[in-house]
Specification:
The protein is α+β, with helices and mostly antiparallel strands. It folds into 4 domains: about 110 residues, DUSP-like, CATH 3.30.2230; about 140 residues, Ubiquitin-like (UB roll), CATH 3.10.20; about 50 residues, no CATH class; about 110 residues, no CATH class. The chain is about 40% helix and about 15% strand. The chain is built from 20 helices and 15 strands. The strands form 5 sheets. Strands 6-5-10-7-9 form a 5-stranded mixed β-sheet. The longest helix is centred in the N-terminal third of the chain and has 23 residues. Bound molecules: zinc ion (2 copies). One zinc ion binds next to loops. The site of one zinc ion (ZN) has 8 residues, from loops.
Length: about 475
Amino acid sequence: MAHRKNYTKYVPRAPANKPDKEALQNEALLFFTLRTDSEETMLKPSEEFCYLVSEKWWDAYETYLGYNEIIEEKPLKKNFGQKYPGPINEDIISDQEKAYKFSSNFEQYQYLSTYLRPKALENESYVFVDSKLWEHIYGLYGGKPIKRPLRHDFSSPTCDDLQKSHIIFLTHSRIKELASDPKTKNNKLQTIFGGFKNIQFHETWKMKDLMIFLSSLLEAETGIPNWNLKVWRLNNYLFLDDFWKSLENFLEQFPEQDKFLIEAKEFTNERFDGINLSRLLKNEYYLVVEAKEDENEGFYFDELKLTSQDIKELQGYCEYCSEKDTILSWTCLCKEAFYCSEKCKYKDLPFHHYICDIAYESDSDNEELQEIKIEEFGYDRGLKNLGNTCYMNSVLQAFKKTKVPEDLFYNNTYLKCIKEKREENKQEEDNKFLLSKKFSKLMKKLSIYDKEPLAPWSWKQTFAFYFPNVKKN
Ligand SMILES: [Zn+2]
Ligand SMILES: [Zn+2]
């Protein structure tokens, strides 16, 4: 087990009575057996869950028992039996106040409502054990149970961290109720709906798992089965206040006006089939669930499409670095992801490409295909270091000084070569085609005068995409 020293919160409490030496030694031996069993049990593919134990507590417990000395048959240290380890996990659990409270008839998913504090990491802040070992120490010391899914697709089992989002459910009956109640107008919607709550999902769930989970959650809450759902992810430039205001406007005009243009992207199973939620969601995303009981009723929410004018003036939080209230002057070609800087845009590519087919084609193609004339390409533009890219930059600069760019790229001769290759074997050459286009563009950019050095993010990320052993960021 890895150990980490910088714990902050946890302070072991003193025992009520002086500990019984023999009892502690017996406990250490029992702990040894349970620990060995636990490691074995968790290797079994049938084992689906584990329990987390705070590393800090674990260390304190071992010291208290004189565990290492007893197992290695060494003399006990002075601190043996001195500091009672106290309740388990209090240092790694986070404040549950804003969390979604699952009703008691949603029992099979109750464990999803336990939140870890931010930055609590496997093998640094906690270890994981089987239920038998957990029940033993929990029975003795108490504390907070943290149950997590166990994954077996690696050489050793790992415990899944959960995907965290904020969620709000807007059911049709609730919408109607709020729209017909004149008091709504004078109340803040947040207080009526309870606002967004934290919710957690399995990282490895797919859209269809999420849909099943959300509709069974609604069924547990309302007793009504077979919900029809649409899941929306609010756009990252949207301020929550603006969202509440537009929702309030919609309610005021309901039912005369029954369309709500939501500034969000719809998460559908068709679009994201087979992709893990950890690829689709980042922690702290805002999800809105429109839920209708009646199959024959239409959905009220529709996507608000942005105009290019809107996009120019966007301000919000950056999709990559989550910087708040910033000007979002960089966007993907899909116009669905917005960033504060070029760096953030390219650093987000390995994530964004899971939800965007054109993520790697984010440079303008017209410019790409233009030839550049001999008079234009005399310049040697500098390259910015993107972090460990100075070797790559040197190779690029050296390559640029050869005859190849002039023969192949400035005049777009490479396009002919690719065309011939593609006719022979289309599929395989497609990837190389995109990479060559990127490379040609890079060579051109490096040859044309610009006093600013170039940051080759686009090239580097595309390259890393096709050659995954190259680090993406
Ligand atoms: Zn950013
Ligand atoms: Zn995109």
